[in-house]
Amino acid sequence: MKVQLEVFRIAYTALRSNALRSLLTMLGIVIGIAAVIAMIALGNGAQQAVRDRISRLGTTTLQIDAQWVRMAGVQTNIRKRVTIEDVTSINERALHILAVNPQQDKDLVLQWEAKNANVKVVGATPNFALVQHFEIDRGRVFTSAEDIGRQRVVVLGANTLTSLGISNPSAILGEDVRIGGMQFQVIGILKPKGSGSGFGSADDQVFIPFGTGRFRLFKTDRLDDLFALASSEAELPEAMNEITLALRRSHHLTYDQPTIFGFAIRPTSSARSVRRHRSSPTCSPASPP
Fold this sequence. Notes:
Helix content is 36%, strand content 26%. The protein is an alpha+beta fold.
């Protein structure tokens, strides 16, 4: 006990006789600890920001596009396309898929009053927001009745407002715009989603009912993309396998035939959601354009 008291007395005397040095030492320790805590907090914050961004792009969404067929490692001039039959087959046979969203798209001019912008016009089913993890900022998404009735309504992506020079979203909500020379009513505006790898942004798109695009604007049965929503991230492998089997069946491939129909599947969080060039279309799970 005496030894401990003596050690404490000597230490206290040394600190008191070198007060400034002791103060600077303690200050250095405090600053060092604070710097370490701040760096850890910044690192955790950055990781969370990345996770949130990927989550917004859709970590459970699978994107399915057509590709050029390869045989014996050589690309042929045959290109298989996704079809409505593929949508039906996936809905019936992929048990780990909650919803399927077929799409058609085309680059067209969006005009409002005296302003216009080049946008990607997407004909989609009403579940596109659910499947691709979009959220509504103002207004609403079109309904199944509007899709079946081929109504001329449109939901605008967040960036299209900037392209039209609109600072107040309420100014265009409920207004009429022209797309490809055809009049549409703006019924909704999406929240910003952000872009994925590559170029382009999901926020540059505008969405119209699938039936309207198929029969009134695009006038084609050809599909450009399929998006499928898996039940969870953990079940993505099962969902991808089920989609592959469903596609094989809809393309009438027997068990002894190789999978040559040219579909690839990957999460959209690692894909370009919006592609200006389709030289090698693919099929994927919305991470973004």
